[in-house]
Every structure is written in C-alpha cells, then in structure tokens.
Amino acid sequence: MGTPVNIIVGSHVWVEDSDVAWIDGEVEKINGEEVVIQATTGKKVTAKLSKIYPKDEEAPAAGVDDMTKLSYLHEPGVLQNLKIRYELNEIYTYTGNILIAINPFQRLPHIYDAHMMQQYKGAPFGELSPHVFAVADVAYRDMISEGKSNSILVSGESGAGKTETTKMLMRYLAYLGGRAVTEGRTVEQQVLESNPVLEAFGNAKTVRNNNSRTKQEIEKYKLGHPKTFHYLNQSKCYELVGISDAHDYLATRRAMDIVGISEKEQEAIFRVVAAILHIGNIDFTKGKEVDSSVPKDDKSKFHLKTAAELLMCDLKALEDALCKRVMVTPEEVIKRSLDPQSAVTSRDGFAKTVYSRLFDWLVDKINKSIGQDANSRSLIGVLDIYGFESFKTNSFEQFCINFTNEKLQQHFNQHVFKMEQEEYTKEAIDWSYIEFVDNQDVLDLIEKKPGGIVALLDEACMFPKSTHETFANKLYQTFKAHKRFIKPKLSRTDFTVAHYAGEVLYQSDLFLDKNKDYVIPEHQDLLGASKCPFVVGLFPPLPEETSKSSKFSSIGSRFKLQLQQLMETLNSTEPHYIRCVKPNNLLKPAIFENVNIMQQLRCGGVLEAIRISCAGYPTRKPFFEFINRFGLLCPQALQGSYEEKVACKKILDSMGLKGYQIGKTKVFLRAGQMAELDARRTEVLSGAAKKIQRRTRTHQAQKRFIVLRKATISLQALCRGESTDLYINRRLSGKLFENLRREAAAVKIQKNGRRYYSRKSYKKLYVSALSVQTGLRAMAAHKQFRFRKQTKAATIVQAQWRCHRAKTYYKKLKNGVIISQTRWRGRLAKRELRKLKMASRETGALKEAKDMLEKKVEELTYRAQLEKRLRGDLEEAKTQEITKLQNSLEEMRKKVDETNALLVKEREAAKKAAEEAPPVIQETQVLVEDTKKIELMTEELESVKATLENEKQRADDAVRKFEEAQESLDDNMKKLEETEKKGQQLQESLTRMEEKCTNLESENKVLRQQAVSMAPNKFLSGRSRSILQRGSESGHLAVDTRSNLSQDNNNTLAYWLSNASTLLLLLQRTLKASGAAGMAPQRRRSSSATLFGRMTQSFRGTPQGVNLAMINGGAGGGADTLRQVEAKYPALLFKQQLTAYVEKIYGMIRDNLKKEISPLLGLCIQAPRTSRASLVKGASRSVANTPAHEALIAHWQGIVKSLTNFLDTLKSNNVPSFLVCKVFTQIFSFVNVQLFNSLLLRRECCSFSNGEYVRAGLCELENWCFKATDEYAGTSWEELKHIRQAIGFLVIHQKPKKTLDEISHDLCPVLSIQQLYRISTMYWDDKYGTHSVSSDVIANMRVLMTEDSNNAVSNSFLLDDDSSIPFSVDDLSKSMERFDIADIEPPPLIRENSGFSFLFPVTD
C-alpha cells in the first residue's frame, strides 16, 4: 500500500494495534527508523517508520461514499471510513464499482421502500448515495441498452446479510421488469416468493447465522419435537427467539402456492421430508449372520415402517436397500449384507440422495413456474456465494469453499484490474508498467491435472486400501517444494494451504470418505417402484451402464467441473460485486469490531483490490479539489488565468514530483506522493501560522511598549516639576487657603438658596402631574372597559353563530358518514356472510361433534369430581368409625385385663380360703358372672371385626369404581385432544384459504389495472358521443371530443380547458338531479337599457329548459335568476364525461410543464464546478448583478422563463385563475419534491456553497411568485417549504452551537427527524471548512429515530409527488367570478351593423 514518506514531527498517522487493529495519533519524535507516537487513546506507541500510515485530517466528518475518493487509500483509512459511515447508519459504501454492505442487524425500512426504488430507477451509477438498488439498476440498464448479460456476485461469511441483500436485488429487478402475469400470478410475486421456498429447503442453521427452519408438527406424518430426530438435533438449536416456526411454515406454504406448486405436490413434498426425518432415526445392530445388520429395536422398526408408508414403498424392500447390497457378476447376482456401520452410511446416503433430488425438483419447478425464456439473449444472474472460511477444524467442505473463493478472487482481481485499465484509458494516461497480482499458483496447486490436490484425492479414492495417512504422505511428497503448500510440524495427516486471505490448516481425516459418492441401484429401484407418482418422478430410470453395479463418483471432480461451468458463465457476463460484512459476532446493532471487519475485508478481496489500485495510482483527485487543497503550494498558478489542468501541472512541477499523471479531469498520484504533498502543505501552513503568530506577538509587544513609555515620561515629568514648585507653593499657599475658604462659604450659601426654590417648584409640578395622570388613567380605564364589554358581547355572538354553523355542518357530515358506513358495513357483512356460509358447510358437522364431545367431557368431569368428593367423605367417615372402634376395643381389652386380674385374685383368695376353711364345699356365683361378662365382650369383639371387614370391602368397591371412572375420563380427554388437533388443522386450512383469497384479490386488482391500461385512451365512449351528437342536432350546446388534441401543444390544451371548464360550470349551475324542487325565478332589476338586457327580455317566452342567460348574476341577483332544469340520464352522463375531460386536460397541461422543467431541475440542485473553482482561484466575493452571477443561475432562469411562458399561455386562453393557481401549486410541489429528494440522496449537494447556489435560485422563484401575484401563484411559494428550510440549514453559520430544539422547532419545523439526521450527517463545508451539528445532537436524533421507528408506519425520509386532481366540480363552481351579462357592452362589429339595431337600448 505504499511506504509512507515525509512523516515529520507533528504528523497525524495510523499505527497498528493488537486490540482495535489501528489507532491514530500524532508523531512526537523520530529516531532513525523508529517513531514515537502519542495515540489519541492516551498511550505512547513506538513503531517502525515503514509500519505507519499518514492520516487525512481533512477527510469529511461523515466519510466518503466512494473510497477511491480517499486521499490515502490504505487499510486504516478504509476501516475508519467504514466505521464513520456505519455509525451514521450508512451501511453501503462504494470502492469503485464494488459495493460494500455492512449488516446493520436492525430493520431500516426507509431505505428499501418503493420511494427509494423509484429514485434509483434510471439514475446514473454513483450519482446517488451507495445502495444495492444502484448495482441492480446499472446491471439492468446494461442488459437493456447494450444487450449484455450481467452477473451480480454477493459474497460474505455467514451472518453478513448475503441472503437479505439477494432478496433486495431480486425485489428491485422484479420491480423493474417483473410485472408480466403468468397463470394469474405476477412474475414479481413469484420471484420474491421463490426465495422463502428455497431458503426453507436449502438453508441450514450454521454457527454464525439463524436461518433454521423446522417443520410443523403434523399428526399424519407422525412427527414430534425436533430434538427427537437425528437429522434435526445435531446443532442443539431447536428454536430461536423472535422466530415462529408455525408462522414460517404457513409463509412457506403460501409461497409454494404463489410459485405454482399445487396442493397435491405440497403434500407429497412434506411426505418426502417427513420420511427423510424418520429414516434418520433408524439405528442398526448386528444380525444373526456374520457382518449383517438389522433394525436395532422397536423404535427403529417404527421409523422404518413409517418411512415406508410415507414413501409408499415396500417395507421389506426398504429394509433390504438399507442393510444389503447387490453385486452383479458374470455368473450370478449376489446379495451381500452390510455391517451396522455400513448400514448407517447407506442410510445417510439414501436420505441425502432423496433430499437432493427433492431440492433439484423444487428449483426446476420454480424456474418453469416463473417462465424463464430459454431463447433469451441476455440475462442477469444473482450469485449468493459463501465466503472464505477458516475454523479450528477445517475439512473437505472448507477446502471446496475456499477453492471456490480462490477462483472467484482471481476473477475479482481480473475485474478490478480491468476497471483500473478502463479508468486509465478513459483519462488517457499511461498504464503499461503497472504490475498485476495473480493467485494462479494456488489454483494450480488445487486443481491442476494430474498433480493437483483434487487429482491426488480422486486417485486415493480409487484404491480400496488407501487411507488418509497415505493420502497425506502423497501430498507431502508431491508438494514439498511448493511455496503455497506447508507441512505442519506436529501432525502427520494435516496440511496447510496459503490462500490469498491467509493460511488454512486442513485435517485430511475425512477427505476420502467425503469425496466418495456412489450411485446405488437398490435405492433407485426401490423408489422407482413407489406407489407415489411424485416419488417416482424424483427417480427416473438410470441409463443401462449405471444400473448394473455401484459406480464411484468423485464429489471433488464434480465440484470442480461445476465451478468451471460457473466461471465460464461469469466470464461471459459483465460482473458486479457486492461484499457483505458482519460488523460483530454478537449479531447486535451499533457494534463495530475492527479486527473482525479487517479479516472479512481481507477474505472478501477488498484489500486485494486496494493493493491493485496502489500498484498504479491510488490517489485520484479532480482538478478543482486538487487546486482547492494544494493551491497554496504554488500561488503563482492561482494568480494567473490558467486552466485547471495547467494550474495542477504547475503545482506538481513546483514540488518536483515525478511519475504522476494528469488525465482529462483528474490528477493521478503514485503511492506516497499524496503524503509528500500533504507534508509540504503542512510545512507551508505551519510557516504561515508561525508568521501570523510572530506578527501578532510583535504588535502586542509594541503596543505594551508604547503604553509603558508614556507612563514613564509622565512619571518623570511629575518628579522633576515637584522640586521646582516647592518654594513657590509655600508663598502662595496662605493666599490660596484664604481664597478657597471664602469661595467655599459662597458656594454653600448659593446651594441652600437654590435648593429652597427648586423644592418649591417641584412640589407644584408634582401636584399638577398627579392631577393630569389621574384624569388620563380614568379616561383610558373607561375606554378599555367599554372595549372589553363590546368584545365580550361580540365574542358571545360569534361563538353562538359558529356553534350553530358547526353543529349544522356536523349533523350533515354525521348523517352522510352514517349512511356511508352503513352501506359499506352492509357490503362487508354480505361478503363475510358468504365466506362464513362456505366455511360453515365444511366445519359445521365437525363443530357439532366437538360441542357434543365437550359436553360429554364436562359431564364426565362433573361426575368424576362428584365421585371424588363422595369418596373423600366416605374415607373420612370410615376413618372416624375405625377410630371409634379401635378406642372401644382398647377399652374392652383394658376391662378384660382388669377382669382377668380380679379373677386371678379371686382364685388365689379362694384357694387360700379353701385351705383355711373346713372341708365343706360352698358354691359362689362370682365366677359364673365373670365368665358371662367375658363371653359378652368376646361376642361384641367379633361383631366389631365383622363390621370392620364390611367397611373395608365397601372402601375397596369405591376405589375400584373411582379407577374405572378415571380411565373413562382419560379416554375422553384423549378424544378431546384429538378433536382439538383436528380443529387446529382446520383452523390452519382456513387461514391458508384466507391468504389464498387475499392473494387472489391482489392478483385480480393487478389484472384490473392492466385491463384499464390496455383500454384505448379515449375521453368519451361511443354511447356518449352519440348522445353529444343528438344533443347538437337538437340545438343544445355540445363539445366534439372526437377531435384529436395534441397532448404536447399547451396552447391548444389551454383553449379546450378554458371552454370545457366554462361549459362544465354552466351545466353545474343549470342542471339538477331528478326529484329536486325547481327554483322559482325572482325579480331582478331592469336591464332593458342595454344590449343583453333586451336580449334577455326578448327570450322570456322561451320554453322551460332553455336558458340563454350565461354566467350572470352578482351579489343581489344574477345566478339566482337561473332556472335549474331537471336532468335526465343522458345529461348527467354528459356532465360526468365532461368532468373527466376537464380533469384529463388539466393533468396533461400539468404533466407537460413537469416534463419541460424536469431536465433543468437536475442541473439546479448542484452548483456547476466552474463556480466552485472560481471560489478557489480567488474570484470576486460578491458576484451579484454580474454576468458571472447570471451564468450561475442560468438554469434557474430557464425554469422561470418556462413558468412565465406557461402563465402567458393560460392567460391568453382565459383559463380560470382558480385552475391556473392549482396548476402552479402542484408544479411548485413537484419542484420541492424533486429538489429535496435529490438533496438527500446526493452528498455532494449537501455543501455550503451548493446551499448558497440553490438559495439564489429559490430567490428567483420567489421573485416570479411576487410578479405573478396571488391571483395566479396562490400558495405556490409555500409548497417549497421543505427545500427552503433544508437550504436554510445548509447556509446557516455556527451549526455546532445549535441545539436539537432550535433546529427542529425554529430552523426546520417542517422536516422530520429522519430528514434532519440525513442532512446533518451528509453536510460538508467546501467553502469555510466548518463542521456540521455537534455529536450530541446527532446522538439525540438517533435516539428519536429509534423511538419513532417503533410507532411510525414508514420511516422514509423522501417526499412523494402528488399527481391527483386537486379540485372538484363544486370547487370550480365556487371559485368562478360572478358577473351580470347585462352590464357587458356589445362589440363594435354588432354595434356598427344595422341588422342588430333591435338589440340597442331604447331611447325615449
């Protein structure tokens, strides 16, 4: 990029930094080849002189839109320019004809709407701000005008916005040429909707973007959550925030409808996709035979069966196709089993083949649906290509991707070199010695036969015993001396390739497996025998030679062949490049990572293009910019009247530079020469600053010296005079004291006397003034009171009258609105009723069944709840009973124990008594009574046990009944869920049907518009012409609209506009609708004394319906005497057609004037370069009222001349002033829109000097409006409010001191925040070098824009041109001047003819 030269102390430079790539600073010290730099970040950096680059301190604050305009075309300059523009939401930047697009990670709808597309349509490339539409437009214009095919290559890494950029390209190209209708759908719709289909089926989720598309859970396909499928859970990403899979599914189905895929084909497509997902879930295990495999478990068998059902093929045949292979020998056909690992490979190959065929079918179907012309001679190809990739693990996929980028980079380098040559040839300079950097050696390393990497890979794949180790060793031996091939030191299988974007380490472990691709006949035969016609169509019969056995096919060779075909296609077209850049890895807005972006620019070839430019002449300055910047180096070149080219040569020769070139319009400088000129310029400016400082300090020192000298002289004189006057003062001091004492006494007496008289006169004057003031204030108070009283009374009267008038108007308006709303709602209700009737026929029965099931579920739920409550009560009662029984049992046990203890005691007592007593046996009843008690307690215990058993049995019965009810409830819930699923499916079907109806309505609207545009452009139909003919035959006034009007002849159009509007006014005043009451004629003043008064009297006997009193009437009569005629259908139809005729002529006149001034408006928005150069050369500061000023505003004077001629034409044909005013109001609105939009889209127009130029032109328009008077100009000047306020902002001084409130409320109240932000960021001062508004104001604007973007419907900063008809028949009728024809004097021709004497006034 050129070694920096003339770096001196104080120079501003760029130096490398490991964190932010580049930082800027100022040189503090230079020690040989080392430089000490004070960075703006605060730290000091020491770097080598060859590693720093100069910084352009005069670069625009908002950056440049084309980086070839940079004074220093190097890495830090490019990065800084992109960063500045990205912070201002300027995401597009040119580098020559290459467009760099930085992903904003936020929606910017205002730069992609229809207004923006209209602005870029047909605009020259580079005239407007950089945009993707500009690239598409230049490609389209080249194809149309020159018949050449064009290609647009969109590249960048994942997440850089390639897909969105491609969408915008397709949208704009469809906008330009896609309005044709095929099969009821516009080509534009099909092109735009083809992208969602291809994106849904062809874009995968990667680690750097979020294009994931999962399928809708559809019960009939037996699908579940994505994590349950092997082909969907590899990335562990199942859902994304802000993305609805259901919404994307419906959008995909809608897009498939639009591109022409039928409902049956859509169902078949999703069946195939679901089958692929099920195939991925089939696992294998070892079979009974050696090296055989079978489905692993019931889950695998289920997925195998489901896949067979979806593909409509034989289950056993599908299993054999996955687990076995057929080997054909000359003697017999042998079936060989596959081991589980080989079966998994077969399974994945089968799924990949089916999905590949499905995607190819979709592409062919979309191309056929759009209707691409196979015989077209030219085309525009849009290529969305992946960018250069380098990861921690790089396999065969990254190798193919980087190989493609190497090929495209070579094509890119050749294109850039070609553009450089065209630029040099255009400027007629010598370029023969410029070297060209090529990467052919890398391409030879990869693709050259027979010794390239791809050829060696195919050779290794042909040998069964080859491994990745043998392949790597072969590479090491073959390319050990190649400078682009590097063998790593710590690996035996890896290898490194030095690509243009850097070194990439590849792992060759899977190169051989991924390069092999077999065509398996079993898969072909299986799917060819499917019962589904769609699946059979995906697999047509194979040729004879490929159907016998499995044949090896190299993916690498096939990829290289396809890439070669792509390059041949690109070489046959005119390429256009768009490089997409991802500003950060967080995927968030307003984050600019320098290191990441530098790597992308390097990988995208942008820096390589800069190197190519630096090999020639990297700095190119137009003559006037070069003179403006470096004219001070050679003042002699500016003092003489030299041409710009000669002045530039004198400046360069005075600096002693060699090797530069001077073209036709630019100065071309070699690398380093710009820095040398800037260094010399810095020295000159530094010397001038030092001289100014020296002169200023000298002036200040001289001024201080003079003051000091005067003070010294005064002090010396005083000291010298004191010694001389000391003696004299002693003699005179006595006399002086006496005189002073006398004088003081006299003064005191006089003072007291004057004070007395003054106080006396003041009091008298004070009393008089109080009296006068009291009287005057009383009068003023009375007067003000009367005025307020009158004002209050008038206000009350006005308020009551205005209230009455507003209430009356409101009632009329309300009645009309209610009637309109009622009719419109009735119409909508009928339409909705028809739709609901159609929908109810399909869903009525299902809804009834659903309602019945819901009722049953409610009943079962109620019963289950009731049983649950009863069971709970029963359990509680049983628990209480058991508790009571247990307590009683415990009490009984205690009693039994007590009884037993007593019994034991009694027995012991009895024994003792028996022993002591005489041997006479006596019976006692105690033992018998105790025994009875024990028996009774035992019986009670048995009854309690029986009761407990009964309760347990009842509880078991209740539990069993509850379980049965629960099972019944579960069954009903399952049925309810199935019913809800069916309802959801019906709801989705209904939603799709509504979307289809919406699309059909939009298509019908397009068809109606096309039908209207195809209709002949005639003002009146044949029936109306016949009516007009009959009217003319019956004596009524008629207009022959069959006469061919010249649409470009304003004089003829103005004539017919005047007559037609007058006739329309007569009809408006004389016709009334059927059923309306006629107006009775009123008395009017006598008009028999004049010509037309006698004519009116003579025709008083005219039959009703004939009224020859033309536009007569005044304040007290006139039009009120006209008798309105009840109009029939032919008259109303004639009036309607005449209204359309007036509106058509009005529109033609207005459009003619627009066409006339449109070419001049493009010249009026930007000042000519000669005027800017005159400012540089030191021309006169005041050029007003000079020939130079007249030449400067010649284009504006051309517009004024056109307006004046047009006004004269309308006046000469007596066009009503109301229509003239409307025409000019719309014309000035058109001028405002064109100038304002051009100002916002072209940065070179947002300069201070250009603002002065446009302001001078606006003064010319203001002067024209003043001369035309309000009668004809009306409010035309107010229509220019947007451009006036914008220009006022450009030319105002001290912009950094202005606050946002002052700008938005005082300076530019009409402009929106988006418009103010656009002007503020694009402004640059080419006259005084001042800056735009402060950074705080810009930040506040961005905050307000972010807030407004959430609420506003459209964020567009452009204005719309209103081409509607701004008046109605009633407006025209109210605006016409009323006059009495009786006051009109007859013309001299009638007065001189004696045959008309009966019309003269009667004299007594």
TrEMBL record:
Residues 8-57 form the Myosin N-terminal SH3-like domain. Keywords: Actin-binding, ATP-binding, Calmodulin-binding, Coiled coil, Motor protein, Myosin, Nucleotide-binding, Repeat. InterPro entries: Dilute_dom (IPR002710), IQ_motif_EF-hand-BS (IPR000048), Kinesin_motor_dom_sf (IPR036961), Myosin_head_motor_dom-like (IPR001609), MyosinXI_CBD (IPR037975), MYSc_Myo11 (IPR036018), P-loop_NTPase (IPR027417), SH3_Myosin (IPR004009). Residues 1043-1347 form the Dilute domain. Pfam families: DIL, IQ, Myosin_head, Myosin_N. ATP binds at G156, E157, S158, G159, A160, G161, K162, T163. It comes from the Eukaryota. Signal peptide: none annotated. Residues 62-682 form the Myosin motor domain. Residues 563-585 are annotated as: Actin-binding. Residues 875-1010 form a coiled coil. Belongs to the TRAFAC class myosin-kinesin ATPase superfamily. Myosin family. Plant myosin class XI subfamily. PANTHER family: MYOSIN, MYOSIN-9. This is Myosin motor domain-containing protein. The lineage of its organism: Eukaryota, Viridiplantae, Streptophyta, Embryophyta, Tracheophyta.
